[in-house]
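Model: Ready when you are.
Researcher: Fold this.
Model:
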Amino acid sequence: MNAAALEQMTASLLIVEDEPLVRDLLRTRFGGEGYAIHEGEDGRSALRVLERERIDLVLTDIVMPETDGIELLVAIREKWPELPVIVFSAPTNQLYLEVARRLGADEVIEKPLNLELLSADVKRLLGRNG
C-alpha cells in the first residue's frame, strides 16, 4: 500500500484538553490505535488547528482557559456541522455536560474517562468496525 492510500485510511483526531497529563494519555492511546493526532490546549488553539488541518473527529474537555469547550462546540457546529464531537468533563459539571448535549455534541462523557468506552465511541462515530 502506498503512502497516499495509507494516509486516506488514517482518521485524524483533534484532542482538546488543558491538562497535559490527560492530553498525553489520550495522545498515547489513540496514536497507538493508528489515528493521526492533533492537539490543542484550549478552544482557541483547537479552532486554529481546524482551520488548517483535515480533522475527522474532535475530543474536547469543557472547562478550559481562553475559549472553553462549549464555545468550541458552538463554533464547530456553525462551521463544520457534520464533524463528530465528543465532549467530556468532570461529573461536577453536569450543567455544562447537558448544555453540550443540547448544542449537538455526539457524545457527552463524564471524567474519569473510560478509555475502552471512549475508543468504542470514536470508532462508532468514524464508522469503523472493531
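Researcher: Now this one.
Model:
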Amino acid sequence: MDRALRQLLKRGVAEIIAESELLELLESGRPLRLKQGFDPSCPDIHLGHVVGLRKLRQFQELGHKVILIVGDWTAQIGDPTGVSSTRPMLTPDEVRTNAQTYMDQFFKVVDKDKTEVRWQSEWFGKFGLEDVIKLTSKFTVAQFLAREDFSKRYASGRPIALTELLYPLLQAYDSVAIEADVEFGGTDQKFNCLVGRELQQMLGQKPQQILLVPLLIGTDGSQKMSKSLGNYIGIDEPPNEMYGKVMSVPDSLILDYFELLTDVSDEEISEYANKMSSGEINPMVVKKRLAFEIVSQFHSIKAAQQAEEYFTKVFQRREAPDEVVPLIGLSGDNVTLTIALTRAGLTKSRSEARRLLEQGAIEVNGEKLTEDLELSSIAKGSVIKVGKRRFASV
C-alpha cells in the first residue's frame, strides 16, 4: 500500500468493512459512490462531524462522488443512537430550513461540484404498506435488539417504539436506492451501516463497504462532541470564539485533534508528541498551532492571526479586549447587572446570567462578583467579563 493510500485508509479511520474489498474498488479506477446521510433535525455542524467530512473530501480529490442524503423521512422517526429517547417529528418546512443550514456548512468542507444531493422522499414517497412489510420481513427483532443502545434499553425495561426499529431499515434502503459503494459514518453507526450492506446483498446488489471514523471527544475531555452537551466547537462560530474553544481543549486531546482535523503531517505530529512528553515544548505552544490550523480552515489565515493576537492579549496578558459591548442606556431603577447583560445579548437569558454569577464566572475589573449588583452602583468605565470570552463596559 503506497503512502497516499495508507493516509486515506489509516489516518482518521477507526474501522473499514471490508478493507480488502475497498482496496479492490479503489484500484479498479471506477469512480465510487460515497454515501453520506444526515438527520435534518440537527442543522449545525461541529468539529465532531468534520472528522468524517474531511475523509469524504479526500476521496473526492481522487475522483469519487459523494451522494448526500437528506433524511427527510427518518427525521420523522428519530434515530436513538447514543440516546435514550426519540427525537420530535419535524414539519416539512423545518426539514427544508435545517437542510439548507446543514448544506451551507457541509460544503465548507466537502466539494459541492463533486456532490449529488438526494432526498429520501424521492423513493420513500412511493412506498406503500406492502413495501414496508416486505422490507421488515428481511430481518428479525432479535437481530435489531443486538444493537447496543436497543439492548440496553430493552434490558432496563425502557420503551422502544416500533418506529425506532424501522430506522436502521430505512437507512439501509437508502443504500439500495442510490446503489452506494461505500457508506461513511461514526463508530456509533456501525450497526446501521451493516444492515445496509446486508440488505443490498439480499436485493441483488454488491454490498457496500463501510468506513467508520472515530468519535471526537469534546472540549470537556470526556464525552463525544455534542451540541446538547455543550462541549462542541461549531464550524460557523466566529474566529475568536473558535480559537478560544480550541485552546480550552485538554492537553491530552491535542494530538488526536491534529490527526483528525488537520493536514499537519504524521511526522510533525509525532515530533510534537515527543517534545511534549520530554518537556521540551509547552503544550500551550502546540495547542496555539492547532487552534491556528482549525480557524484557518473555516475562516482565513488573517482571521486566525487576529484570533491568536486576541487570545494572547486577553487571556495570556490579561488585557482588556478591543471589542467590548457597551452597556449604554440600560441603567435605571432596579436594573441589575444580570438584567443588563441579558438585554445586551451577552447572555441568552437572565437565568443563564444568574448561573454564571453563582459559578463566579462574572468579573468586574478582574474581581469576581458574588451578588447581582444594580448596574448604577458599578463605576463608569468598568470592564465586565462574562464567562470566558465575552466582555462589556459600563
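Researcher: Key takeaway?
Model: The two ends are 63 Å apart (CA to CA).
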